[in-house]
Amino acid sequence: METMMKNFMKSHHTLFNPTKSSNTNKNINYQHDGDGDGDGSTIPSLSPLAHSVLSRSAKILAVSVQELQRRFDAEHEADSQQLVKHTRIFLEFCCYQALHHVITNRSDYLSDKDFRRFTYDMMLAWDSPTLVLPVNDSPQNETSISSSEQQVEDEDGWSLFYSTTTSMAVQVDDTITVGREAFARIAPACPAVADVITVHNLFDSLTASSDSRLHFLIYDKYLRSLDKIIRTAKNTQGPLISNLQLAEGEIILDVDGTVPIQPVLQHIGISAWPGRLTLTNHAIYFESLGVGLYDKAVIYDLASDMKQVIKPELTGPLGARLFDKAVMYKSTSVAEPVYFEFPEFKGNSRRDYWLDVCLEILHVHRFIQKNNFNETQQLEVLARAILGIFRCRAVREALCCFSSHYKTLLAFKLAESLPRGDMILETLSSRLALLNATSVSGSPRGKQQLRLSPVALLTLCQLGFTLQKEANLDVEVLAFGDLWAGETNPLEIAVKQSVSDTGKAEAARATVDKVKVEGIDTNVAVMKELLFPVIESAGRLHHLASWEDPFKSMVFLVLCCCAILWGWTRYIIPSIFVWCAVLMLVRRYFSKKMPLEAFRVTAPPNKNAVERLLTLQEAITEVEGLIQTANIVLLKLRAILLAVLPQVTERVALLLIFVAAVLAFASLQHLILLVFLEAFTREMPCRKESSGRWLRRLREWWVRIPAAPVELIKQDDKKRK
After folding, report:
1. Who is most buried in 37, 337, 455, 572, counting CB within 10 A?
2. What InterPro entries is this protein classified in (predicted)?
3. What are phi and psi of 178, to 5 degrees?
């Protein structure tokens, strides 16, 4: 990491030097000279809050608002027809630069209450950028914002984000809330706070109880929880590194099982043992609890390609499948599956959380293995996953909620869950390729190299985490990372396209859950009704083959023989497909308004628990009988193949040679006709007696063939014990 630090500090001065950073902050003049109105005189349409945000941003950057506007006008054309849109782009331009300056010069910005208020004011200003805002733009932000000459001080005597004696601060009403788009445009500018891929899901989690409007108290609580999680993660590195013997660049993401009332049990076979479970960005560690101390950790790798499988599973004492509170880990490195049980009195939220974070690390390493990334790109991908897990922990601890599936806060887990989520990963891969790109962009930003900086990796390093000691970061750091004022990130476009399909997927999933029924007899009854056309067709065909009505059977026989001889059999399957297509099209265009009626199934009589157990036992017995019959057939064929009875083997061999000759020299058409005639005319009155006699002789011959011997070897249970 030393080389990376040197290269980065050369291009951006003293961003990672805490001493120099603190001195730099003190030397910056955060006070505004003037009465506050002078800076915004060239933008008279700004709302008071937007004016305050722009002034504070200019103060942080040590420039005037006019200078920021001059820079902005040099890159963006003015649009008088869309005043609100143009003003919002200008706000984004200033906010992105100010946030970048702050987060690259300070490592403790999340703990600063003024920073949290400042970023929230940015979102409010984005929602209400002008004095006169159309009704449709922000219907819930009509509460007046009053300016005051309030003076807010920080620990050093002056506020970093608010004005001093020059009426720059804005007293914001607590009833004002932030909308989805404002949060999605501002929050990802701070990579630790939000990710472009999951920012909308994060907003939904924060506003689950506030009608999709974000209150400052919730936002502040989330950031304070995130700061606590990051500080805890940094403090956890020291005590556990010596016990786990972590590899270079390995970061501890979460630990569970340290509280006696919330243990973690590891099940292997029929044995179970409590211990401490640790997740890093490369593996899962489990330390069994000994006599007052933890034993040596067992490593379950997630980074290497070992065909790992991680999924939810049932577990219980002595290997019984009773409680749905476990995560199964299986790979080529373990002899048998390992189960981690997370006991809790109600629900399985602990299990779901650990399942998702483990899958996130597994998915991110598979994404790295699939793409030919260089070192910097690999570290950037890992940093995205690590920050995502920190955010997930912060929301879980601050709001006591956990979102999974389509609403997860984990980017790679979300890409695996969403329909067309592979497009998100492809877009991310193309964006990562721009870390070393040198092509000139023709965007509204002007003639500038389209080169992105690894914002997640740099953010993680600034927060005090080290992914790799030696890394060559030969990338020019841009002002705002992967965000540009007035432009939509391609990742956000890919996510929106995938999310648009989730409604249909969730509706389909709801119908599937609704039609699921319990009980073997009930499911069999439903299947019989669904397969009624097939069963009915098979019954009619069997009726014709039984020759109970000779005239119909003879007509069917003649028609089938003609169809086979004239080569019409190849049109049977295409005709079935065409008939089904016509039926569906008729339903599609001529029965649009007809609702789909529920499929009616006659339910079998209700059974009590004992009767259900007996039914289950009978079904298991029947399945066991079928398996035994299949095994006997295979063992008898093995005996014939290995010449246990030489005479039988000789006859079967001659028969196979004769069949091979027939298949080699006879036409397929005649063979099909021969097989059809033999099978269909077996029950004809003139053939019934002879066919029965031949079948009896065949069964007697099969009974006389012995089965090949089988020896059962018991498995060694020493490892299991």
Report:
1. 455
2. DUF639 (IPR006927)
3. -105, 140
Give residue for tokens 């006709």.
Answer: 673
- Residue-wise burial string across 304-317, b where 16 or more C-beta atoms lie within 10 A, e elsewhere: eeeebebeebebbe
Q: b or e along 668-683 (b: 16 or more beta carbons within 10 Å of the residue's beta carbon)?
A: eeeeebeebeeebbbb
Chain segment 671-685, per-residue pLDDT in tens? 888 888 888 888 888
> 468 has which bridge partners?
none
User: For 65, phi and psi rounded to 5 degrees?
Assistant: -65, -35
Tens-place pLDDT, residues 432-472: 888 764 433 334 444 344 567 788 888 888 888 888 765 55
Question: What b/e string do you get for 244-266 counting C-beta neighbours within 10 Å, with b at 16 or more?
Answer: bebeebbbbbbbbbeeeeebbbb
- The pTM is what? 0.75
CA 715 distance to own-chain centroid: 38
* H or E stretch covering 575: helix 572-590
What's phi and psi for 404, nearest 5 deg? -130, 180
Q: Which two tokens stand for residue 199?
A: 């920012």
Which one, of 691, 418, 681, lies nearest residue 550 by Cα? 681
Give the three-state DSSP class for 252: strand
Instruction: Return the amino acid letter for 448.
Output: Q
